[in-house]
From TrEMBL, chain A:
This is N-methylglutamate synthase subunit B. One of its GO terms (molecular function) is oxidoreductase activity. Gene3D superfamilies: Glutamate synthase, alpha subunit, C-terminal domain. It comes from Ancylobacter aquaticus. SUPFAM superfamilies: Alpha subunit of glutamate synthase, C-terminal domain. It comes from the Bacteria.
UniProtKB/TrEMBL annotation, chain B:
This is N-methylglutamate synthase subunit A. The keyword Transferase applies. PANTHER family: AMIDOPHOSPHORIBOSYLTRANSFERASE. GO terms for molecular function: transferase activity. It comes from the Bacteria. PROSITE patterns: GATASE_TYPE_2. Keywords: Glutamine amidotransferase, Transferase. It comes from Ancylobacter aquaticus. Residues 2-292 form the Glutamine amidotransferase type-2 domain.
Length: 242, 293
């Protein structure tokens, strides 16, 4: 491996990688080779320049701090790792995440957290269309607004939005729980507003706490959306909704 | 797939760098469209003159052709730019058809020059020396063909009116119907390409008095399918995505420029990008900038 992946002198366990000089494949390959008990627990990545698949496929409890905007599928399939993006993220950030934390300090493009099974995705800015599409257990907290068709066919997990939601929120929704503080442009097929009971307020509070913003927002301002469960099984009367 | 790039300068200071900036953006978008590439540059014009961008078979002697036509042709590879007084455009076109029947006029306008060719976009850009060109705005395209063959005619941008051009990422589903409408209105769509239909549609709207913004607004109702369009006019630059936002788009705006790309990577090398306002254009929302305004 190229020795440009050199530990910096500033702190033990910290590894600095400049993607302007180190090929992305080398970085990802080095990350994939890390042992579970590695001492290289903090990685700082410079000059990502929107490259795709940065820090995808990790399976170790390390922290990756990326200084700038990333491209598609950043931290996709993540297990255990914490990935912090100091910038915007392209399409499919945290797609298929299993566990761990991904924190985007800027905006996220389409399909953020798509199909993800677990972990926490926090987006400080806005997320565009199809946020949480087909999510299967991830918790997503978006501090801004989300685009159209978000939580499409979302199966499990939570999607919490401090801003507004675009058109067709939760279309063909299964059991994911959606909390939106702002306006919802429209609800998708089989998605309805549901009563916000104490258990839901507690659940929302736990997600806000995980995202570090419990107490900063008023839980009573959120509305809950979920599945009306009328499209689970084929019924000829619903044929136009399938 | 396909890649799109566009750059609209708000300040004259970057004008000498326009071609170099666009070239670098186009290079990065090779990954999205390796089949062919093209670009339109809005450079200097001479009042009272019209520029005709010509395309000929490899080996065409544009200098000799210019001598025959009585107007100089500036050659760039397989293309050449002929500048003629507006009043003589018709007669020069007639002479051109007679003297060099295999040379085509691919773009006209007071300021627009248009180049496109089959090949890796980075090679196409350097063949035409894009990096040396200056101007106020430019758009470019890297193509991965879907709806029609990989030919120079099928490469983008498409120009269907003076100083007008369009690049497209996506595919239109009602282009045959729109093509028939345009034929009835007397607009000739030269290729089988769906994107040329979109270009001609905008020309048709603007010919009827629409501004670029209004023409784009109308296309939301009349064009069906997947699209991200970037269009140029003599003084304007517009962007439109379909209501589902099927195709990617990201923009950056500073005091000096507005830039468009299919992916952020293509914007990453622009001056001042670190502090630019970077945003995704919203679906079904018309964006346009005009230097004349």
């Amino acid at each position: 491996m190229n020795l440009s992946l050199k530990p910096s002198a500033s702190a033990e366990g910290e590894t600095f990688v400049d993607l302007a000089h180190t090929p992305l494949r080398e970085l990802n390959s080095a990350l994939h080779k890390l042992a579970a008990d590695t001492n290289q627990t903090l990685w700082k990545i410079a000059n990502p320049a929107g490259r795709h698949a940065i820090a995808a496929g990790l399976d170790v409890p390390v922290t990756i701090e990326i200084d700038g905007p990333v491209g598609y599928y950043c931290a996709g399939m993540n297990k255990q790792a914490s990935v912090i993006v100091h910038g915007n993220a392209g399409v499919g950030v945290a797609e298929n995440m299993m566990s761990g934390l991904i924190h985007v300090k800027g905006d996220a493009s389409q399909a953020a957290g798509a199909t993800a099974h677990g972990g926490l995705l926090v987006i400080d800015g806005n997320a565009s269309a199809r946020c949480g599409i087909s999510m299967k257990g991830i918790d997503i907290v978006v501090k801004g607004s989300i685009g159209h068709m978000s939580a499409f066919m979302a199966q499990a997990g939570t999607l919490t939005v401090l801003g507004d939601a675009g058109e067709a929120l939760g279309d063909s929704l299964y059991e994911a729980k959606l909390f939106v503080r702002g306006s919802v442009a429209s609800l998708g097929a089989d998605c309805i507003e549901k009563e916000m009971r104490e258990e839901h307020r507690a659940l929302l509070a736990s997600k806000l706490e995980a995202a570090g913003i419990l107490g900063e927002v008023d839980i009573s301002e959120f509305r809950r959306y979920g599945s009306a469960r009328t499209l689970y099984h084929f019924h000829v009367d619903n044929v136009s909704s399938y | 797939m396909c890649g799109i790039v566009g750059l609209f300068l708000k300040q004259p200071k970057l004008e000498p760098e326009l071609g170099a900036m666009l070239s670098q953006m186009l290079d990065i978008m090779c990954d999205r469209g390796p089949d062919s590439a093209g670009f339109a540059v809005y450079g200097a014009g001479t009042p009272g003159f019209v520029k005709l961008t010509l395309r000929g078979p490899a080996g065409t002697d544009f200098t000799a052709l210019g001598t025959q036509l009585g107007h100089p042709v500036i050659a760039r590879g397989t293309h050449g730019v002929l500048s003629v007084p507006e009043a003589e455009e018709a007669s020069v076109r007639a002479a051109l058809a007679r003297l060099a029947p295999d040379v085509r006029v691919v773009g006209t306008g007071a300021r627009m020059e248009l180049y496109k060719e089959v090949g890796l976009p980075a090679d196409v850009a350097s063949r035409f020396k894009l990096e040396t060109m200056s101007g106020t705005h430019a758009i470019g395209h890297t193509r991965m063909a879907t709806e029609s063959a990989v030919t120079t005619d099928g490469a983008h941008p498409f120009s269907t009116g003076p100083d007008q051009c369009l690049v497209h990422n996506g595919s239109l589903s009602n282009h045959a119907g729109v093509r028939r409408l345009l034929a009835r209105e007397g607009l000739e769509v030269k290729t089988e390409n769906d994107s040329e239909v979109a270009a001609a549609y905008l020309t048709y709207r603007m010919r009827g008095g629409d501004t670029l913004g209004e023409a784009l607004e109308h296309s939301l109702g009349d064009l069906d399918g997947f699209y991200t369009f970037v269009v140029g006019t003599e003084s304007g630059f517009g962007v439109l995505r379909d209501p589902i936002a099927c195709k990617p788009a990201v923009m950056a705006e500073t005091d000096d420029y507005v830039a468009f790309a299919s992916e952020y990577r293509a914007l990453a090398g622009l001056p001042g990008i670190e502090t630019a306002r970077v945003f995704e254009p919203e679906p079904a929302k018309v964006y346009f900038w005009d230097r004349a305004a």
